[in-house]
Design goal:
The chain is of the alpha/beta class and 367 residues long. It folds into 2 domains: 3-11 and 248-359, Lyase, Ornithine Decarboxylase, Chain A, domain 1, CATH 2.40.37; 16-237, TIM Barrel. Helix content is 31%, strand content 23%. The protein contains 11 helices and 17 strands. The strands form 2 sheets. Strands 1, 10, 11, 12, 13, 14, 15, 16 and 17 form a 9-stranded mixed beta sheet that branches. Strands 2-9-8-7-6-5-4-3 form an 8-stranded parallel beta sheet. The two termini are 43 Å apart. It binds pyridoxal-5'-phosphate (PLP).
């Protein structure tokens, strides 16, 4: 009997060989297309995994919050893009502390924020690296790839304590793509938004060194457009059912799963010990509508996890009555990033044998 078969459930299981393979494939792509790889660690929130990505060749990492950056710097990682327009003084104090140990880059998306950053760093006699966030269609943060980018770049350039040397975007709307063609179009627009913005900056005499794109569904198309210098996929370390539904990955490439047990079988339904606190209700980012149910049951793909309450999952479908109490089911989550954030650690396995436990170090680091 493999030792994963005796784990208490629910457990977050990580197939380390598959994950390493996924990371190696992104790195291979980056090498072939001469772009840097700066993975978003929001997916795994693990120092160990971030280090493996750096060992594979990543130039640094991307995070969403100062708290995630703190965890990673404490873990020894020293090149971090905080891909969020931070401006509050208490968070800037924390960034200042991180800058003693690491290169930190902060996203900027308005003249007002840039001024706040400059005032703060001037007071502390420090220079902050900033990258302008460009909106490539997600309509979240970011300036438009128009005159707006030139205005912001010019404003930053005349501020004495900000150093502008990059622009970046994230085409999260790729998650709503309903065909390969639509995905390709979004990826193309993502790259275009960056290249247009860089050209607009060049026209006003501002050279942009780093031109960064990044989402897991788009990086393979956008990342090979000439002129792009960096990719930032996060989910690609694990993949999940959303990526499978978008044709971006296969079920076999998914490295993360949740092992759960059947607790009850009755009236054409079975109950498992994984509910919304384990599998998350999330069916993918930004209004993705391609997902059925709350995860893929590897041993019984014809069955559906139809609904979740907090600690219960309800399975239905042909043959559900044959499930047995205590039977273990392996579920590939819909959205790996939100599921990882719900667990304290990964149970890491190689071919079904547990080899390590890794903490989800930055789970819950929301601020
Ligand atoms: C700014 C930024 N970069 C990169 C990523 C990674 O994208 P994905 O999760 O599709 O890999 C995200 C994800 O939200 C993001 O917000």
């Amino acid at each position: 009997m493999k030792n994963t078969e005796i784990l208490q459930t629910p457990t977050l299981l990580l197939d380390v060989n598959q994950m390493d393979k996924n990371i190696a494939e992104v790195m291979q792509f980056a090498k072939e297309h001469h772009v840097n790889y700066r993975p978003h660690i929001k997916t795994h929130k693990s120092v160990e995994i971030a280090k493996r990505q750096l060992e594979a060749g990543a130039v640094g990492i991307t995070v969403a919050t100062v708290g995630e950056a703190e965890v990673m710097v404490n873990g020894g990682i020293n090149n971090i893009l905080i891909a969020f327009p931070i401006s509050s003084e208490n968070k800037l104090e924390r960034i200042l502390t991180l800058m003693e140990q690491a290169t930190i880059i902060v996203a900027v998306d308005s003249v007002e924020q840039a001024t706040l950053l400059n005032n703060f760093f001037k007071q502390h006699k420090q220079t902050l690296n900033v990258w302008i966030k460009i909106n490539s269609g997600l309509d979240r943060c970011g300036v438009e790839p128009t005159d707006e980018v030139a205005q912001l770049a010019q404003h930053i350039n005349q501020l004495e304590c900000l150093l502008l040397d990059g622009i970046f975007t994230h085409a999260g709307q790729s998650y709503t793509a309903t065909s390969d063609e639509m995905l390709e179009q979004i990826a193309y627009e993502e790259a275009e938004a960056i290249l247009t913005s860089a050209a607009i900056c060049a026209d006003v005499g501002i050279h942009i060194t780093h031109k960064s794109i990044g989402s897991t569904p788009t990086f393979k198309q956008a990342g090979k457009v000439a002129g792009i210098t960096e990719i930032r996929p996060g989910n690609a370390a694990f993949y999940d059912m959303v990526q499978v539904s978008l044709n971006v990955a296969s079920v076999e490439q998914c490295a993360l799963s949740v092992v759960t047990s059947v607790a009850s079988v009755k009236n054409n339904r079975a109950i498992i010990d994984a509910g919304s606190k384990t599998l998350a209700l999330d069916k993918g980012a930004h209004g993705n509508e391609s997902i059925m149910g709350h995860g893929y049951i590897v041993e019984h793909p014809q069955l559906t996890i139809e609904r979740l309450s907090e600690e219960h999952g309800v399975i239905t479908g042909a043959g559900v009555e044959h499930l047995k109490i205590n039977e273990r089911l392996t579920i590939i989550p819909n959205h790996a990033c939100t599921v990882a954030n719900l667990f304290t650690h990964y149970t890491v396995h190689e071919n079904g044998e547990v080899v390590a436990k890794w903490p989800v170090d930055a789970r819950g680091k929301l601020s």
